TrEMBL record:
Record protein name field: Glucose-6-phosphate 1-dehydrogenase
List of catalytic residues: H245 (proton acceptor)
Keywords annotated in UniProt: Carbohydrate metabolism, Glucose metabolism, NADP, Oxidoreductase
EC code(s) of this entry: 1.1.1.49
HAMAP family: G6PD
Glucose-6-phosphate dehydrogenase C-terminal domain ranges (all copies): 194-493
Chain positions recorded as substrate binding sites: H183, K187, E221, D240, K345
Gene: zwf
Enzyme class: oxidoreductase
Presence of keyword Glycoprotein: no
Reaction(s) catalysed by this chain's protein: D-glucose 6-phosphate + NADP(+) = 6-phospho-D-glucono-1,5-lactone + NADPH + H(+)
Family, similarity comment: Belongs to the glucose-6-phosphate dehydrogenase family.
Binding-site residues, NADP(+): E88, F89, K153
Length: 496
């Protein structure tokens, strides 16, 4: 079903996110007939260009970044619905112009006063833009129309700033109008975690401390900071990835079954889970977390400079480009089960996956054979690339002696469903247009994520690492991260 009539207003329309992801996603929605006939996009940015120039720019962008070949006829229809307004985000006059333009667009395109404002700008502007939208009367919902705001990450810099951002915007918007994005939730494989757990009778009964030995979550990237030194210097891996993307994966894997897929039912369970993560004490930060920063190395056959030599990075920077931690969840389902999370840039391969290791059988039966150890059962949820799910079993190796080998049952998305290249933003944009906030973060979800990482960030800030850079680009990160698991008699499944 296509969404109802609306206009999407993109703040930061001349930026990277718009051309690489939002535009291709909207184009894909158009191709799939999920955009309404009564639809328009209004781009807002500083760049002083005309509407025609804006359309030509997006024409070039879509040909460069579309996930499928562009159908020129379809693009022309799309292009006719593109509008542009240049101005400063802090300038009240600009919002009056926007008001007038939106009224005009409503008349031209039949969009009925329904507006989705997408804040694809630097986070410094979030508060100002929302306040100005409020002052200009653009976010009041009445006369049967809706007004919604999508806020990109980073949502705050720490617990305090996230709280104050939530508080500020709550003066202007109702919670039901706020869509805090975490693009990991737009990934099919991430959404499928819920179907895997709650749509199959097989796994839920063993999804607990009785049967699961430990869980590993890896989000490894091969890219470095890609010219974003300025942003990344004040951010680091915990703020950029751990607090949001990895915690999303964690909650999907561990939360209790929600009573429905209703937005608040799901978000309630996520909050309950995050509340039960055992808080890090300063001592735990020393023993259960690892930070890293890459030095020069070779990634995918290319020489990569050290992080400290990247443009707009301090030569003595203490920003972490890698983070690993061990946490535990103090509830009945998970008490005592360790969760190991790691993420880093310039690692050896691009892999996002969740590994669930099950407990061993008592190996009494095989005591007298030549088998010295049985391999445990592993379930691997491959989020990207090579999306799929595999399960490792022990099987008898054919032959007269009793020998056991590890075999894999493997489900690949591509085999069953083909691959429909997409950006991951399609679902999120569509959901916002139809008013479904299930895949977006509520204020308490975000704050609880910050609450968990706060003590880590505090201790790290107070004790500047002396050993940076402590891993070579193109490897699997600092050796301390291996030691984190080895101390518990375990090892990372990928890269060791
Ligand atoms: C973004 C981070 O949120 O996620 C980037 O800011 C990171 O630093 C990116 O590279 C990773 O996303 P994906 O979808 O490529 O795993």
């Amino acid at each position: 079903h296509s969404a109802g009539p609306c206009t999407i207003v993109i703040f930061g329309a001349a930026g990277d996110l718009t051309k690489r992801l939002l535009l291709p996603a909207l184009y894909n929605l158009k191709r799939s007939n999920l955009l309404p006939q009564e639809f328009a996009i209004v781009g807002v940015a500083h760049t002083p260009i005309s509407q025609d120039d804006f359309r030509s720019k997006l024409n070039r962008d879509i040909h460069e970044f579309a996930t499928v070949a562009v159908d020129d006829q379809l693009w022309q229809q799309f292009e006719q619905r593109l509008y542009y307004l240049s101005g400063e985000f802090q300038d009240a006059k600009m919002y009056q112009q926007l008001h007038n333009l939106l009224t005009q667009v409503d008349q031209d395109c039949g969009t009925q006063g329904n507006y989705l404002f997408y804040l694809a700008t630097s986070s410094n502007f979030f508060c100002d833009i929302i306040a100005q939208l409020g002052a200009a009367g653009l976010v009041q919902e009445d006369n049967g129309h809706w007004r919604r705001v999508i806020i990109e990450k980073p949502f705050g810099h720490d617990l305090e700033s996230a709280r104050s951002l939530n508080q500020n915007i709550s003066h202007v918007l109702k919670e039901s109008q706020i869509y805090r994005i975490d693009h990991y939730l737009g990934k099919e494989t991430v959404q499928n975690i819920l179907v895997f757990r709650f749509g199959n009778g097989l796994f839920e009964p063993i999804w607990n401390r009785e049967h699961i030995d430990h869980v590993q979550i890896t989000v490894a990237e091969t890219v470095g900071v890609e010219g974003r030194g300025n942003f990344y210097e004040g951010t680091g891996a915990v703020r950029d990835m751990m607090q949001n993307h990895l915690f999303q994966l964690l909650t999907m894997i561990t939360m209790e079954p929600p009573v429905s897929f209703d937005a608040d039912a799901v978000r309630d369970e996520k909050s309950k889970l995050l509340k039960s993560v055992q808080p890090f004490t300063a001592e735990m930060v020393q023993t259960q977390t690892v930070q890293g920063q890459y030095g020069e190395g070779t990634v995918n056959g290319k020489t990569v400079p050290a992080y400290r030599s990247e443009p707009r990075v301090a030569p003595d920077s203490t920003t972490e480009t890698y983070a690993a931690l061990k946490l535990t969840i103090d509830n009945w389902r998970w008490a005592g089960v360790p969760f190991y999370l790691r993420t880093g840039k310039c690692l050896s391969a691009r892999v996002t996956e969740v590994v669930v290791q099950f407990k061993q059988v008592p190996s009494l039966l095989f005591r007298d054979t030549s088998i010295d150890h049985l391999t445990p059962n592993f379930l691997v949820l491959r989020i990207q690339p090579d999306e799929g799910i595999s399960f490792q079993l022990g099987a008898k190796i054919p032959g007269p002696t009793m020998q056991i080998g590890a075999v894999k049952m493997d489900f690949c998305y591509a085999d069953y469903f083909g691959t429909t290249p997409s950006t991951g933003y399609e679902t999120l944009l569509y959901d916002c247009m139809i008013g479904d906030a299930t895949l977006f973060q509520r204020s308490d979800n975000v704050e609880l994520g910050w609450r968990i990482v706060s003590p880590i960030l505090d201790v790290w800030a107070a004790t500047s690492p002396q050993n940076f850079p402590n891993y070579t680009a193109g490897t699997w990160g600092p050796t301390q991260a291996d030691a984190l698991l080895e101390r518990d008699g375990r090892q990372w499944r990928v890269g060791t």
